[in-house]
């Protein structure tokens, strides 16, 4: 069983300097939701942004230990345009 801190740390290792929030959506340690704001996303399509987040988690996705990860990804500019700081 995984926890939100583990998922968050894996994402941060792959995307240093990002803002990452992760929540366990079911309490079972295998369904999570993450919001990631990263300068690495600038100029990339959403599917490319998601690929960057999924990459460091492939081992757990393939094994089924991480069953679902819903993503909301933004570059800092996109996040700012939405009125968030």
From TrEMBL:
Belongs to the BolA/IbaG family. This is BolA/IbaG family iron-sulfur metabolism protein. InterPro entries: BolA, BolA-like_sf, BolA/IbaG_stress_morph_reg. Pfam families: BolA. SUPFAM superfamilies: BolA-like.
């Amino acid at each position: 069983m995984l926890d939100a801190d583990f998922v968050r740390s894996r994402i941060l290792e792959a995307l240093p300097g990002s803002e990452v929030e992760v929540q366990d959506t079911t309490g079972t340690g295998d369904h999570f939701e993450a919001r990631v704001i990263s300068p690495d996303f600038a100029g990339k399509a959403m599917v490319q942004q998601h690929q960057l987040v999924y990459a460091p988690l492939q081992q757990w996705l393939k094994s089924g230990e991480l069953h679902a990860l819903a993503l909301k990804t933004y570059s800092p500019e996109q996040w700012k345009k939405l009125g968030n700081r």
